[in-house]
């Protein structure tokens, strides 16, 4: 246990999060977990504490990718070419991906030090270190788009391909992605959100007693850390030491629970009736694709294994759905998602009377039947490589879980990893011990998760690529200090592939040789370009030279960071009620464009005596959409006040460009003095901000002040009657190109 990590059992509350983490720890096919919640709610602490519960894995000694010694299909080229190699054990790695990491740091590149010596060798990146482990991203919603694209490529294929700077290398990159985020700081791209198998939501403790406990444990931990080198303990260190001993015992118990549940997972069956129920639930919920179905099935089996059963019951299915559905209930960031509990209640209410008694009988039978022959069989199946037999039995049985179509492949993948994960055998363990473990586990994580769900379970299922085995991420694990030294993979392509923009990953928008932002790729430098020295050295080395020629000079192409602030000034007065529906549709179209460009938006409501900024600048477009849909209508129109508020927002914002969208019929009737004069003055004032203005004219009789707004601000005017989503998108997109 790291001295800087709060032990898993010491985390107060957050039962849903702990339950989800334990599920990820038990089943490597649950390939991702998204943790959403407020700041300071132990999100990162819990993820790091998970590593103390996970067993070590066997790897090929000195391999930088930690290749499994017993599965050549998941080894790098270097390991496959060896006739013989040593085997060692290591903690399953926990690798943190910093938000400011460069593409080279993540994917790997040509080694500069070796290049200076005239050797072209590959320097593995973070994806190499994370192979067969956890890739952890704190504030994942703030991750740069070009890094998100890189993660999506690797997650989809289980392979990292590097084609740049004269490097042509691919290596295994199977990882479990765990990300944390604060929803108030922005949305997560749907493509990335869909790569998380589960989602857990955390909130701060509302109980005074719990908050006091958190304070005590934090103080005990910090005091104990301060006194590791000696000092006045003031009588507190003994209590901290006792607490640490107590956590050691609890950690050991949980570690054994994870190991036992992992072994039991092979024998957990999912009755066909529950498979049908899962499919119907996902259809009723309106989720896209099949990943939710597979995620629920795998998670239900895992929860049953954690609870000491070998057969899934109805409660497992519901608990799994609470972890796998919520984020899938909306396909666009500005659509209202139905409440997960309402969806589940509607689906399960018809089965509650008959299902409860059936579940109870099943649960009793499973509890008594599993642990008597169970743990001895667990060890025989899980420890000796006999997983294939168990997998076959599991895969051919109609009651087997983990996704029917890919069940056999998934179970084979389970079997190949099982010896790495379980450590010691459970043969000597008795039924009573297993029951005690299950009870202890339940005490630590609660009886069931709360209500949250997450993304994909199919990044490991490989339905798109057709490679269920190769693309299946492995169990996350403990932290690893560094990647071991090994022979570098051959760099066999000396052609400078970086000369093709975007090669090796998805295309990136907003790229510039002189722009700010993260480095995306390199290109041959011209006389006026800044020189990227490391890339130039690598280019020379890849061409077999120890000195840099003019043809080797490279310049960096950076991802542009220019963002547009879009301020919506919406007339919510009574005169706008007939056109409010069309007006909201207009603004929703602009919100969609803002979301695609990852711009910031602000919202000014023009109603009553004074305009109000109901949404300060933010890139959380879903939050903006909710404000729009809840916008009340007033009986007065303080249009000058709304224009002044927009001017303040634009001038205070640190944006490269700004767009003000004014939606009004122009019937201003609130101002100090003449509304016409005040509107003209406010429009002129807004024009001094250099913001582009789009005027959506909702008037139909020409009596409003829209002509003044257009002339004073130079606005692009769009008639509400002729409005189309395409015209609005063009108007908003032109700001990016200006």
UniProtKB/TrEMBL annotation:
GO terms for molecular function: ATP binding; magnesium chelatase activity. Residues 336-414, 449-468 have a biased composition (Acidic residues). Keywords: ATP-binding, Ligase, Nucleotide-binding. Residues 331-530 are annotated as: Disordered. Residues 565-735 form the VWFA domain. The keyword Cell membrane does not apply. Residues 415-432 have a biased composition (Basic and acidic residues). Pfam families: AAA_lid_2, Mg_chelatase, VWA_2. It comes from the Archaea. Its EC number is 6.6.1.1. InterPro entries: AAA+_ATPase, ChlI/MoxR_AAA_lid, Mg-chelatase_DI-like, Mg_chelatse_chII-like_cat_dom, P-loop_NTPase, VWF_A, vWFA_dom_sf. Belongs to the Mg-chelatase subunits D/I family. This is Protoporphyrin IX magnesium-chelatase. It comes from Halogeometricum borinquense (strain ATCC 700274 / DSM 11551 / JCM 10706 / KCTC 4070 / PR3).
């Amino acid at each position: 246990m790291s001295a800087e990590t709060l032990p898993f059992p010491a985390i107060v509350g957050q039962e849903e999060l702990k339950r989800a983490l334990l599920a990820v720890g038990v089943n490597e096919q649950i390939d991702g977990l998204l943790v959403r919640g407020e700041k300071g709610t132990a999100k990162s602490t819990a993820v790091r504490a998970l590593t103390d519960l996970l067993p070590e894995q066997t790897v090929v000694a000195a391999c930088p990718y930690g290749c499994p010694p017993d599965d050549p299909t998941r080894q790098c080229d270097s390991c496959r070419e060896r006739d013989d190699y040593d085997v060692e054990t290591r903690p399953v790695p926990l690798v943190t991906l910093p938000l400011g990491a460069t593409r080279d740091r993540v994917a790997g590149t040509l080694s500069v030090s070796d290049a200076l010596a005239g050797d072209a060798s590959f320097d593995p990146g973070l994806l190499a270190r994370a192979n067969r482990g956890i890739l952890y991203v704190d504030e994942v919603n703030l991750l740069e788009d070009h890094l998100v694209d890189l993660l999506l490529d690797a997650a989809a294929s289980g392979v990292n391909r590097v084609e740049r700077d004269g490097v042509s290398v691919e290596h295994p990159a199977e990882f479990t992605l765990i990300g944390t985020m604060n929803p108030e700081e922005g949305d997560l791209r749907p493509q990335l959100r869909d790569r998380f198998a589960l989602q857990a939501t955390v909130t701060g403790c509302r109980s005074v007693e719990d908050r006091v406990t958190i304070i005590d444990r934090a103080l005990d931990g910090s005091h104990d850390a301060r006194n590791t080198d000696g000092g006045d303990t003031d009588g507190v260190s003994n209590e901290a030491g006792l607490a640490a001993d107590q956590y050691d015992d609890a950690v050991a118990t949980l570690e054994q629970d994870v190991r036992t549940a992992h072994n039991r997972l092979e024998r957990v069956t999912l009755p066909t009736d529950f498979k049908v129920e899962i499919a119907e639930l996902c259809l009723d919920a309106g989720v896209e694709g099949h990943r939710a179905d597979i995620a629920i099935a795998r998670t239900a089996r895992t929860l049953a294994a954690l609870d000491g059963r070998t057969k899934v019951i109805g409660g497992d299915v519901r608990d799994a759905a609470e972890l796998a559905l919520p984020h899938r209930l909306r396909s666009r960031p500005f659509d209202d998602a139905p409440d997960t509990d309402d969806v589940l209640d509607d689906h399960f209410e018809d089965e509650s009377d008959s299902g409860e008694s059936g579940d109870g009988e099943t649960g009793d039978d499973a509890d008594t039947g599993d642990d008597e022959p169970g743990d001895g069989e667990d060890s025989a199946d899980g420890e000796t490589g006999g997983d294939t037999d168990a997998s076959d039995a599991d895969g051919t049985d109609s009651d087997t879980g983990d996704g029917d179509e890919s069940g056999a492949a998934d179970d084979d993948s389970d079997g190949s990893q099982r010896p790495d994960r379980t450590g010691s055998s459970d043969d000597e363990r008795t039924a009573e011990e297993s029951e005690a473990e299950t009870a202890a586990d339940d005490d630590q994580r609660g009886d069931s998760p709360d209500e949250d769900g997450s993304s994909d379970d199919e990044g490991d299922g490989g339905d798109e690529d057709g490679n269920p085995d190769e693309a299946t991420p492995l169990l996350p694990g403990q932290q690893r200090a560094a990647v071991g030294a090994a022979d570098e993979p051959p760099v066999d392509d000396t052609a400078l592939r970086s000369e093709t923009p975007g090669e090796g990953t998805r295309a990136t928008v907003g790229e510039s040789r002189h722009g700010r932002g993260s480095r995306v790729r390199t290109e041959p430098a011209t006389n006026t370009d800044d020189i990227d020295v490391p890339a130039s050295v690598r280019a020379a080395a890849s061409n077999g030279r120890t000195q840099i020629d003019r043809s080797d000079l490279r310049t960096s192409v950076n991802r542009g960071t220019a963002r547009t602030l879009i301020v919506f000034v919406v007339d919510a007065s009574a005169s706008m009620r007939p056109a409010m529906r069309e007006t909201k549709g207009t603004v929703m179209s602009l919100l969609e464009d803002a979301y695609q460009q990852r711009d910031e938006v602000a919202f000014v409501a023009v109603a009553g005596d004074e305009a109000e900024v109901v949404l300060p600048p933010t890139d959380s477009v879903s939050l903006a959409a909710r404000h729009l849909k809840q916008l009340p209508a007033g009986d007065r129109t303080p249009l000058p006040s709304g224009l002044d508020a927009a001017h303040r927002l634009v001038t205070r914002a640190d944006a490269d460009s700004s767009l003000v969208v004014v939606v009004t019929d122009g019937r201003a009737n609130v101002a100090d003095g003449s509304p016409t004069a005040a509107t003209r003055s406010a429009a002129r004032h807004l024009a001094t901000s250099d913001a582009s203005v789009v005027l959506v004219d909702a008037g139909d009789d020409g009596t409003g002040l829209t002509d003044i707004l257009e002339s004073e601000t130079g606005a692009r005017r769009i008639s509400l009657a002729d409005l189309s989503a395409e015209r609005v998108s063009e108007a908003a997109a032109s700001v990016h190109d200006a």
